[in-house]
């Protein structure tokens, strides 16, 4: 999933008193007039139609004299990617622009809050106890501008459920404006230990909602240690049961690291006996971001060293007919008998391969590496030969 940072741009002119604007980008010369008043026209070359709320000028482009005095933003080259249908936040008072949504991206993710009631050892977005309620207001404005044919959007945090009623408001807005778009919410699930909250979410009846909830062990104390919160495991498990009781689909997420792989097989057995009703289990390789870097000695284990545990867990879940996927895994470190569960999960713009991968016959199927693999990666990466691949396919 992507969350794009703010970047500096030059506002040549902005309407007085406007400190923040959420706009959809258009390149359509024939855009109906009433829509133009709420959109930004991207000027590259060719005619520039009148009536848009903003004009975004690519490097080298100019605004015709007839439109001088209209709100005008000069984009540096790094904004080459901006295209028709994208949604931007413009902040003239700070000379900042941020892409909130990119129509061409396969994953668009919205951070709802930086607050969290867990403090996970490997948190990629370290929590901050700040009042960031304005973020929800901004997303409520952005949702109607998003292409309704978008396949999926995600909500992340922090912990989105700390927003309470406002999270429900966002889910309702997604159902209204984007009824064909899948909505994936990453949450620790603890707030749903209160059945009333789970019931209210279920009652919205979003047509394609999935909650991704981490469970790190079959033992409460290990899970609570990983998330650094006493009592979290109990609340999370009760939350999962309540959500399912009210018809909300659940994905269990397990990040694979030194603290979780030791009992991975037992966790798979626990899920297949007690939470057989979940809709998906994602077993996810570690991304070295945020707190993970500071806690790397507690977390890092070479994936080659948990190869057997991963295979056992996948086989247990598959035998129980639970849908299971492996994310962020390098195939040469993964038992070939479970390659069919591995997904190319790392977004294109983050995905990398190492010089050691050269000549690998399964590169087009392998998730590869996050850029953060520069901090630590296995020293057992070996290209898979075509012969080996053919033999495995025949197994
Ligand atoms: S050598 Fe590289 S591309 Fe091939 S399986 Fe290993 S990590 Fe993937």
Which sheet architecture does the biggest sheet show? 8 strands, mixed
Q: Give the ordered list of helices and strands.
A: EEEHEEEEEEHEHEHEHHEHEHHHEH
Strand order of the largest sheet: 1-8-7-3-4-5-6-2
Under CATH, the topology of the largest domain can be stated as TIM Barrel
Bound molecules: iron/sulfur cluster
What is the CATH architecture term of the largest domain?
Answer: Alpha-Beta Barrel
Report the mean per-residue pLDDT as an integer: 93
- The structural domain count equals 2
Distance between the termini: 34 Å
- Radius of gyration over C-alpha positions, nearest whole angstrom: 23 Å
**What is the class of the largest domain in the CATH system?**
Alpha Beta
TL;DR?
With 395 residues, this protein is of the alpha/beta class.
Task: Explain what the structure shows.
α4 runs parallel beside α6 and α7 runs parallel beside α10. Helix content is 25%, strand content 18%. It is α/β, with parallel strands linked by helices and 395 residues long. α2 (134-142) links the parallel β9 and β10. The chain is globular and about 70 Å long. The protein has helices at 33-36, 134-142, 165-177, 195-204, 220-227, 232-245, 264-274, 291-294, 296-299, 307-319, 386-394; strands spanning 7-8, 10-13, 21-26, 39-43, 54-57, 72-74, 87-91, 96-101, 108-111, 152-156, 182-186, 209-214, 249-256, 280-285, 324-327. It is built from 11 helices and 15 strands. The protein has an 8-stranded mixed β-sheet with strand order 1-8-7-3-4-5-6-2. The protein has a 7-stranded parallel β-sheet with strand order 9-10-11-12-13-14-15, with helices on one face. The chain folds into 2 domains: 7-101, Glucose Oxidase, domain 1 (3-Layer(bba) Sandwich), CATH 3.50.30.10; 108-394, TIM Barrel (Alpha-Beta Barrel). Bound molecules: iron/sulfur cluster. Residues 330-332, 353, 357, 360, 362-363, 366, 368, 381, 383-384 line the site of iron/sulfur cluster (SF4).
